[in-house]
Specification:
Length: about 270
């Protein structure tokens, strides 16, 4: 992997939002021409974090809706503050490819006050082996290099991409979200959190499509360190609708939850 590898590279143009070029490291499992939703969702979150006056604010809830397949192509991201309060801020952001809006995000940020209250419900020890004692196993290969899976370090504590059912997996980025930048704790969480559906599939990948149409992340605190762990479980109804819920951890304890709504369908032949 080259030293300057990244999910996105700034192109330095445009006054109507930030323009970036998606690299092949964003490729997902469904098409060589479409991105895995994790990196573009994190790009939307990054635009919220970069809004003016954000010092002391932390994202408590972030939701991104994937409006259509996101192409591996130049994109534009922009954000705006919808409501500014004394203790909270509500913002929205859009991701556009060409003239088409491909994703839309919203976020609630809360102004933090260290020591404002006792910590409750976040002291449980991590119930999984640490990533540094777990083997790096083969992961899904969509057939083209590079891709999202080659850009991420995955360490399974339970299950695997090739087993059906619940799974526990540690994620670490091998490449930055944007070239030349260290990803924020929020962005690292979102790049990983969108994979809950993929690691905990309950139907065979070769026969079924199970694409998430959204991602919702709730965080009580930001992750410490490079690793984010997903304890993921997927449930699917017989009429093609499902959801994934993932408990989120870092190496020191619980940090939050993530959910995804799923469109599930049988693959067509040919």
């Amino acid at each position: 992997m080259s030293d300057n590898a990244a999910f996105f590279v700034p192109d330095g143009s445009g006054t109507d939002g930030e323009r970036l070029v998606a690299t092949p490291y964003t490729r997902g499992p469904w098409s060589a021409d479409s991105q895995h939703a994790g990196p573009p969702a994190a790009l939307v979150a990054r635009s919220v974090e970069r809004l003016p006056g954000g010092d002391g604010l932390r994202v408590a809830r972030f939701v991104v809706d994937v409006l259509r397949p996101i192409p591996v192509a130049p994109v534009r991201v922009s954000a705006r503050i919808v409501r500014e309060g004394r203790r909270v801020r509500f913002s929205e952001a859009t991701l556009t490819a060409g003239d088409t809006e491909v994703a839309r995000g919203v976020a609630w940020q809360i102004r933090v006050e260290p020591g404002a209250t006792a910590s409750v419900g976040l002291s449980e020890p991590v119930p999984f082996p640490a990533p540094d004692v777990l083997a790096e196993l083969p992961v899904y290969d969509p057939g083209l290099e590079p891709n999202y899976f080659s850009a991420m370090d995955l360490r399974f504590a339970r299950g695997s991409v090739f087993e059906l059912g619940p799974a526990v997996c540690w994620f670490r980025q091998r490449v930055p979200l944007v070239e030349g930048e260290a990803p924020s704790p929020l962005c690292r969480t979102i790049v990983a959190a969108d994979s809950g559906n993929g690691i905990s599939a309950v139907l065979p990948f070769r026969d079924h499509l199970f694409a998430n149409i959204d991602l919702s992340v709730h965080l009580a605190r930001e992750p410490a360190g490079e690793w984010v762990c997903l304890d993921a479980r997927t449930r699917v109804s017989a009429d093609g609708v499902g959801y994934t819920k993932s408990s989120l951890w870092d190496e020191t304890g619980r940090i939050g939850i993530a959910t995804e709504s799923l469109l599930v369908a049988r693959r067509t032949a040919g």
